[in-house]
Design a protein that fits this description.
- It contains 22 helices and no strands.
- By secondary structure, the protein is an all-alpha fold.
- The protein has four domains: about 70 residues, no CATH class; about 190 residues, Exocyst complex component Exo70 (Monooxygenase, Up-down Bundle), CATH 1.20.1280.170; about 130 residues, no CATH class; about 110 residues, Monooxygenase.
- Helix 13 runs parallel beside helix 16.
- Keywords: Exocytosis, Protein transport, Transport.
- Belongs to the EXO70 family.
- Component of the exocyst complex.
Length: about 600
């Protein structure tokens, strides 16, 4: 129980002076400037000494406004007493500023965020068997440790020490030492918060420091910050606020607990949120989008807790800063998406990829928008306007929104990105000298786009079946164009026109023309095989389908041609010079196509066969 003022009778002036003299002796006994023993020992380690000293302080305080010599003695004594209480106040705070106890974070909650917080705080060291046990204050305010679904206020200082701090604070404030009390409390507790920050991996980085970091290092720091920020707001700051309330709730000064709370956490809170602010105003580039969205999601999840912990008028600036960062992160995400669209449209590479395979741009863009689809819940709220084409930009495709009029803004942006990717790929296809390879390139890349869409439930849902069918038709059309460009000359050799003559011999077939036709077919087929074995269709199913489609046209045509004209060649000289390949061999040769084989590899394969 807190020491109470001793009563004095109305006629007890002598008694009052006697009480003052006794109190003054107690104060002087503990004057650290005059006594070695007073410098070495602390009052608040002995409950009996605490009681005597606080009685003495109360007695001296009663005489501060007394007339004459007593007032002067009282003022001098109270200064000595306040200096001593300030030291005691600081000592209690310092001696109980141990790291946050991670065990006190354990609860029945299985939420991933809470588990992450607990895991982080495992590094903070101290362990206690008390866990998060509820302790009641003598003042009757109820539980010292309270929690909501996300905020977990824990015991930072033992309850007996909190009671001592409260007793000292009330006397310092009553004597006019409010500022000193706040400064001591704030400096010690801020050091404790700084210690927690270090254990959580939060560094003291200015906005400039953050912006100078390379992106790889920054990604790691963002991941760490997201986990640590939850602990800081929900545990560290919330617990500091509760501690301030319990230490200063019985002090007469209005809102002193607010002042002490802000003295303690304002600097660390600014340090914490400056990191997110630096990210929100940093140079925009596509690779930053997803970490910015992670930050945005973490901050929007934390915002109710920030508003709860920093609900005081004096902490308006913290709430405003958090809200402004959230707004800037949202704007940064919108800006990055727009810049990504422009980058896809204007990606400048002109060197054709070997073999007509999938262009690195296609892989990058489709992987990127697949990730975008995974952030759909966030981006649906952030992306509020449809994509727009600059009317003066002739190097951009037209988009007919009527085809996808039921789609939301985010889905339209994804469709627009796919459209401009195709537009860019069409331009790159023109750098191939071989028209057939140009069409194969388009086929491969559009097929890859279709497969990536089909492979993502979210992406497929946003793109929609209608546009997906349109893309499927696009790569099938490219496959048709490829076959026409690559095989029409070969198939043209297998026609009858130009082989029959009148009056040459009984059959009406010109043997010389037939020989030339076989020679042309052999030369063309050999060249197509040599070249297209080096081409590549990376998707195995598409590769097999394309080979089957070629054989469905080529095999019957060649078999029929041989059936009609083989005898004319074999009845003449050196038939092997003209009929160089059987139907079965032709089919085997076609099966070599699109494997990306070099000439050496083709030769080695033939020898092994």
């Amino acid at each position: 129980m807190e020491p109470q003022e001793q009563a004095h009778g109305s006629d007890g002036d002598d008694c009052s002076v006697s009480g003052f003299d006794s109190a003054e002796k107690v104060i002087m006994k503990w004057d650290a400037t005059a006594s070695e023993e007073a410098r070495e020992k602390m009052i608040f380690t002995d409950p009996q000494e605490v009681k005597l000293y606080l009685h003495a302080v109360d007695e001296i305080q009663r005489h501060v406004s007394s007339p004459g010599e007593l007032e002067s003695r009282a003022s001098s004594a109270i200064q000595i007493a306040m200096a001593r209480l300030e030291d005691e106040f600081r000592n209690i705070l310092v001696s109980h500023s141990s790291p946050i106890n991670s065990d006190s974070l354990m609860s029945s909650s299985s939420s991933s965020s809470h588990l992450e917080e607990t895991d982080l705080l495992k590094r903070t060291g101290s362990s206690s068997s008390s866990g998060s046990a509820t302790v009641r204050l003598p003042t009757g305010r109820g539980s010292y440790s309270r929690s909501t679904s996300s905020i977990r206020e824990i015991e930072l200082i033992p309850i007996d020490a909190v009671v001592y701090l409260s007793w000292i604070a009330r006397r310092m404030v009553s004597a006019g030492y409010l500022r000193e009390c706040i400064q001591v409390y704030g400096s010690v507790r801020k050091s404790a918060v700084d210690s927690s920050f270090r254990r959580l991996g939060i560094e003291k980085l200015s906005i400039g420091d953050v912006q100078r970091l390379n992106w790889e290092a920054l990604e790691q720091k963002i991941r760490r910050w997201i986990r640590a920020a939850k602990v800081c707001v929900r545990v560290v700051f919330a617990s500091e606020k509760l501690l301030c309330e319990h230490v200063f709730e019985s002090v007469g000064a209005v809102n002193i607990h607010e002042a002490c709370f802000m003295e303690t956490v304002k600097g660390p809170a600014i340090q914490l949120f400056n990191f997110a602010e630096a990210i929100s105003i940093s140079r925009r580039s596509p690779e930053k989008l997803f970490k910015i969205l992670d930050l945005h999601d973490a901050l929007i999840e934390l915002l109710p807790d920030i508003e709860s912990v920093f609900d005081l008028k004096s902490s308006d600036s913290i709430r405003v800063q958090a809200a402004e960062i959230l707004s800037r992160l949202a704007e940064a995400a919108r800006g990055i998406l727009s810049e990504f669209e422009n980058a896809v449209l204007r990606e400048p590479s002109r060197v054709p990829v070997p073999g007509g395979t999938i262009h690195p741009l296609t892989r990058y863009v489709m992987n990127y928008i697949s990730l975008i689809s995974e952030y759909r819940p966030t981006l649906v709220d952030l992306i509020m306007s449809k994509p727009s084409r600059n009317a003066t930009d002739t190097n951009a495709p037209e988009m007919d929104f009527s085809e996808v009029e039921n789609k939301g803004p985010l889905a339209l942006h994804l469709i627009w990105i796919i459209l401009i990717l195709q537009f860019n790929l069409e331009g790159k296809s023109k750098y191939y000298r071989d028209a057939a390879l140009s069409h194969l390139f388009v086929m491969n890349n559009v097929h890859y786009i279709v497969q990536k869409i089909k492979g993502s439930t979210e992406l497929k849902e946003m793109i929609g079946d209608l546009y997906l069918r349109k893309l499927t038709g696009k790569f099938r059309q490219a496959a048709t164009y490829y076959q026409r460009a690559a095989w029409v000359k070969v198939l043209y050799c297998l026609r009858d026109e130009g082989l029959r003559t009148k009056g040459s011999f009984a059959s009406g077939v010109s043997r010389s023309a037939l020989r030339e036709r076989f020679k042309s077919f052999n030369a063309l087929f050999e060249e197509v095989h040599r070249v297209q074995s080096q081409w590549l269709v990376p998707d195995s199913q598409l590769r097999e389908e394309l080979k089957i489609s070629i054989l469905e046209k080529l095999s019957p045509a060649y078999r029929s041609f041989l059936g009609r004209f083989r005898s004319h060649i074999e009845s003449g000289k050196h038939p092997e010079n003209y009929i160089k390949i059987t139907v079965e061999e032709l089919e085997t040769e076609v099966l070599d196509l699109f494997e990306g084989l070099t000439a050496t590899q083709q030769h080695q394969r033939r020898r092994s066969e």
